[in-house]
Structure formats: C-alpha cells, structure tokens
Write a structure and sequence with these properties.
By secondary structure, this protein is an alpha/beta fold. Helix 4 crosses helix 5. A hairpin with a 2-residue loop joins strand 11 and strand 12. The longest helix is centred in the middle third of the chain and has 21 residues.
Length: about 300
C-alpha cells in the first residue's frame, strides 16, 4: 500500500473523473450518471464517435437534464475532447485540412452550447511535410477558428511523438502559442503517459519536467490532466496507456502529481484501459471507480514494480 496520508487533506477537494460515453436517448444525462457511478466529480466526453464527423443535433443531447443532475451532486464542470480525425497540421491533403478547420469550429460551438469551457485537441501530424510546415499549418488553423468570438478555450494535448505527431516536445507547443494571435484562448492538456513516452522523466524527476514546462509555457497554462500509466519504457513514442500503477510510471508518481498543490483546481481525467472480469475473462470492466478511489486515498494494493 502506498501511504498517501500526507496528502489526505487534498482528497476531498480533488477534481477527478474519467472518459465516459455519451450515447442512447439520454446522451449527456447518461454521461453524468456514468461519471457519478465511478465516484467522480468531473468527466470527459466526445460529442460523438472520435473517428468520424457524425453528430446529433445539440438539442437532442439532454443538456439541461444533465446539468440539473450535476448540480444535485455538486459537479461543477466537465471537459470535451475533439475527435482524432481533426488534423490541423496536414498540408499534404488540403481537403483533409479544411475538414479539420470546419469541424473544429463546429466542435467549439457544440462545446459552448453543452456548457463546457474546455475543448481538448491533438495538435496534429505533419504526415511527411516536416515539423515547421506542420506547426505553421496548426497556427493558421487555430487563428482561423479562434477569430470567431467564444468562451471556450482549446487545450493542446501533449503527445507521445508517434509517427509525425506534433506536440511531443514542449518547445513545439510553445511555438504554436507564439504564433497564435488568440493565445489567450489556448491552454494545455498534460497527458502523463504521452509525456513519459515522449521521453520526459515524469516518474523519477517530475520537478525538472514541470520546471521545463513552466519556463517554456507556464504551469498556469495546464487546464486539465490526463492521468494514465504507460505500457512502454520512457521515450518509446508509442502511446499505449496502462492502468494506474500497472505500468512504467507507477502509482506513487501519479498520486503525487494528482495531489500537487499547484494543480489542486485542475481536473484530472483517467483514460486507462478496461480490464478483464476475473469471473468472466471474455468480459471487460471499467477501472475508473477503483482508480479514482486509489488516487483519492493512496490506498492501492501493492504490486511488483516493472524493471
């Protein structure tokens, strides 16, 4: 068991949840119910399937009913994740890039109408055109989308560096900030698995990693955390999430980050894999209820560290 008593005073104030689904007739209302079933006080949703652009009209999402249930349980907010198909960095295929710009604008509008103020976005992949061209394309796309008035901020996600992904280095995110005219509407989503897989030693030297981030972008720009362990060794650039305490990061560093007083007001979102049901191996179960409890209290069963 990891002794987390020194951070017990922060457990009740912890803003923590997970990715939840939004489907069926009750849509966002069912999302809130799922989050509450995990003991969460926030959550993350996609407005539709992350692999396509099919979306229900906003007036069919049961938004008012969802917010009433959230208010009853003192749940103050949630975050939205943009679909993976949005790639602002693609200069190779103009149609793909224009789709990204147009659909991102629609997602910003949907996010605002749903009542969230944060839309998480993968910066994109340059697909062979080179980092410089990709970053310029991202900047141009963000300037186009953010030129329209709105209250929603876009949180650029830290990436693992898989393929031609942009955002695996803090310097790349800083370059995007520097080029966007509306940078007051930019924030960062700090993904622990991605940062580890990109080569940063967030497990053994988190102070140095966060210090470097602070110098380049400012810690105040972190608006949400994705709290995930990693199935890969540091620097693998593979982006394969592991359950909390079951990977190369380990439980203690993630627990410490979740309870860092600098980030007490920042939502922490779990995106960890479902695990096999011990009584029925063909079935999988969500890990979020137990992981949220572990991260609140520090009471996770011990396991052997990966070497």
């Amino acid at each position: 068991m990891y002794n987390g008593n020194e951070n017990a005073h922060t457990a009740n104030n912890l803003i923590i949840g997970s990715h939840v689904s939004m489907s069926g007739k009750e849509m966002m209302l069912s999302s809130v119910r799922e989050a509450l079933s995990y003991g969460a006080n926030t959550f993350m949703i996609y407005t539709g399937a992350p692999q396509n652009t099919r979306r229900k009209p906003v007036d069919e999402l049961c938004i008012e009913q969802a917010w009433r249930l959230m208010s009853l349980h003192h749940m103050e907010g949630f975050v939205v994740h943009a679909p993976y198909i949005i790639n602002l960095a693609n200069t190779i295929n103009p149609r793909t890039r224009q789709l990204a710009v147009d659909f991102l604008a629609q997602e910003l509008d949907r996010t605002q109408k749903m009542g969230s103020r944060l839309l998480i976005l993968h910066p994109g992949a340059h697909v062979g055109a080179g980092e410089k061209a990709g970053i310029k394309s991202i900047i141009d796309g963000l300037n186009e989308v953010l030129s329209e008035p709105g209250d929603v901020c876009i949180a650029l996600e830290t990436m693992a560096g898989k393929g031609s992904e942009i955002g695996a280095r803090f310097e790349q995110l800083a370059a995007i900030y520097d080029g966007v005219r509306y940078s007051q509407r930019l924030r960062v989503c700090f993904d622990t698995c991605h940062v580890h897989d990109a080569g940063y030693d967030i497990a053994q030297d988190p102070g140095s990693v966060l210090g470097q981030f602070d110098r380049l972008l400012g810690k105040d720009q972190i608006a949400v955390f994705h709290i995930n362990d990693s199935k890969n060794e540091r620097g693998s650039a593979k982006d394969r999430h592991a359950d909390i305490g079951e990977g190369y990061l380990g439980f203690a560093p993630l627990y410490a980050l979740v309870h860092d007083p600098d980030f007490c007001a920042i939502p922490k979102i779990l995106e960890t894999p479902w695990y096999p049901d011990p009584s029925n191996p063909s079935r999988t179960l969500p890990p979020y209820r137990r992981e949220i409890a572990w991260l609140r209290t520090g009471d996770k069963p011990e396991r052997e560290e990966i070497t």
